[in-house]
Amino acid sequence: MAQGEAGTAQETADPGDATASRAERKERTRRAILDAALALAADSNLAAISLRQVAKQVGVVPTAFYRHFGSLELLGLALVDESFRSLRSMLLDVWRHAPEYRDFIDGSLPIVAQHVRENRSHYAFIARERTAGPPRVREAINHEIALITRELSTDIARTGAAEQYSPEDIALLADLIVSFVVTMAERLVEDPDSEERTLAEARTQLRMLLVGALNWRSR
């Protein structure tokens, strides 16, 4: 009886193991497709590569590509989402623990520099596709940057800045800060060896910006 029960348990475990294995293989293939697209687009942009090139790089047939992404544009959207998801989470954590909005600078810049360092191919992709990518990919990148800007606006207002700034001026300040940070990230991608100097210059520029912001009063 015990032996029969053990045999039944073994038989029922196998389908689950096989399912887990298939899921793992599917995820590995998906990851390989994303990495191959990043590598192929490194010297040009997403619009210049083909689905067949990506499939060949991964070692799968083109139909296997469609099981993961309906098109190269959808693959690009997945890369945009992947690039911004963890960055937004880290920045939100910094901003929500900053006592004053001027502290956002010293907290945010090292986080962005570290993220660029650890995900350089993603940031290079974003920098290229932001201006030269397919329309939906460009829109997705701008949408993510707008989300970060809105989240920063909310946290600036939370620190008490709303007492001296109108909502419109808070939004303008957040947009200026995020624009500086985006430019810094692009410089870090282009010249990784100058990270220390780039960070120092960005910090100085943003502090100069805040000198004016701290003395600004909305009408």
Automatic annotation (TrEMBL):
InterPro entries xref list: DesT_TetR_C (IPR054129), Homeodomain-like_sf (IPR009057), HTH_TetR (IPR001647), HTH_transcr_repressor_FabR (IPR050692)
Alphabetized UniProt keyword annotations: DNA-binding, Transcription, Transcription regulation
Residue ranges of every copy of the HTH tetR-type domain listed in the record: 27-87
Residues in the DNA-binding region annotation: 50-69
Transcription keyword on record: yes
UniProt xrefs under Pfam families: TetR_C_46 (PF21943), TetR_N (PF00440)
Chain segments annotated as coiled-coil in the UniProt record: none
Region annotation Disordered: where it falls in the sequence: 1-26
Name assigned to this protein: TetR family transcriptional regulator
Record-linked PANTHER family: HTH-TYPE TRANSCRIPTIONAL REPRESSOR FABR
SUPFAM superfamilies: Homeodomain-like (SSF46689)
